[in-house]
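Morning F.,

Quick status update on the modeling queue. The single chain you submitted on Monday has been processed. Sequence for confirmation:
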Amino acid sequence: MKNNNEKNILYIIRYTPPFFIILISIILTIILYSDKKKTILEQKKTIKKELLEEQKQIIKSEVDRTYRYITYLEENAERNLKKHIKDRVNEAYNLIDGIYNKYKNTKSKNEIFNLIKTSLNELRYDDKQGYFFAYNRFLDTVVYPISTDRRHFRKFDKFGNSIIDEIKMTFQDKKERFGTYFWYKPNSGDEQHKKISYYKYFEAFDIVIGTGIYLDDFESRIQKKVLDYTKLVSYGKNSYIFVIDYDTVYLSHKNEEYIGETAKQNNDTKYVDEVIAKLIGIAKNGSGFYEYIQNKKPGTNIPMKKTSYVRGNNNWNWLIGMGVYSDDILERIEEKEKLIDEKFDEYIKNIIIVSILLTILLLLFSIYISNILEEKFNLYRNDIEKKQDILFQQSKMAAMGEMIGNIAHQWRQPLSTITTVSSGMSLQKQMGVLNDDFFEEGTKKITKSAQYLSQTIDDFRNFFNPAKEKNSFVLENAFNSTLDLVDAQFRTKNIEIFKDIEKLTINSYENELIQVFINILNNAKDAFLENEIKGKRYIFIKAYVDKSLLAIEIKDSAGGIPNDILPRVFEPYFTTKAHKDGTGIGLYMTKEIITKHLDGKISVENSEYEFEDKTYNGALFKIILPL
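Structure tokens below.
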């Protein structure tokens, strides 16, 4: 019979665990609910500020992108104008050269010349605004469609530049050239405007043909192109690009009726004079945000608070802006709050379900344990052995978890290669430039990466198996297999790899050696990105025989490893990256493979070297392996 103490112990074993399991489950559920509720309230407090800032950054980004586009076109206007008129002159030259070659054996030279003059007189471009002219060696006008005055090319512009010097030089060297001067526009009064011309010598009739365009006319076409572009830029339902000149005239707006009218005529905002003056003042000084009341919100035609970001182009006297309405932000806030509430309800629901299930499982487990303890109360040693078995299984599970982490680490690069290649093939397909060679090459890389993923599983399954067999392979082939796997990502990061590998065959574990190379190369790639290395990015791989041992050196130009962390780079889980970017297992696994599986050594140091007359700094990994 059991004594009272034994009965009390059995009662404790039987009823105490369920009681504490239920109590702890209830307490944890309450704590999790309270903590999540507090987090939800804090999120709702900050969501308005975050969304407003997010919307401001979005409209700023759109305006800045439009401004950069305008600046690019503006800065390259003269270069694009020169290319434009040169192309037109070459087209005219090809036309008259074709006429000459067609009729030179069937018509007189005078007849051909009259055909050429007629063709040039009638030839137009740029909506019939552009025309061509031609002069003979005596600088007489032989073609000039818009005027009969043949003396104006014997004058000088307002800066004293000769109008005919460039034509003379074209006759002298019988080539082609640009000319820049200031001259009167047709029907534009006495003001001279900058004009760029292009001349080309036509040897068959000893003439120079050419054309010219006024720079401000070309800029006007550019401005029209920009305004057409701004009509396509929008964000959401009610955010759009608007352009106003410094005279307050609307040049671009979602409401077409506004274009060509002043801000005051459109009465677009409350206190319109004050608002438009403030916006133009901000634009003239650079850029900035401004909040005001717009009288008519598009789609509703009711007054609404609006926050706009504006930026000025002082060369064109333009204000470029985009705004976001407060009610749109409130709508987004309500949507996000609703989403947060839904997630919170789902979270609570899941917590309750998990808590109930876990409580039931723990109760069943506690009952089971209690029964075992009750039945085996006098078999203490057997209980200890069972606990030891449980600890052993837990250790095996921990090892399995580590191996799964290593597999995930090794899969990252091949999966990235597959994603990069497939994305590139899809993009080229959409652009209509996908060719068979690129498709074949991409398919091979995807297949090879997939095979590597499968091989990685086999490698890690046997990772701690001492019975794995070595095989003979050519070292250079192992490097080539490695580079095939990382090629796509490295090319997109502008990383160039140089190899200096002796022709030799070694007897080792090829796949594990490839794993080592990938880890080191990926470490170099991460260093380039983390250190924001600009310009040339190099990795040098050298392999040679040194005293009957294989020596492999891999160095980069990524700036090196800080001296205070250099001794720790091979430690497990040590990483300088954020948790999302690295686990710290790569170089640790590299050392484990080399030392425990390949019977080699690995070290790292910072190295300074010269390449193509420039000095570079980077990490130098040295690997010593038996042949």
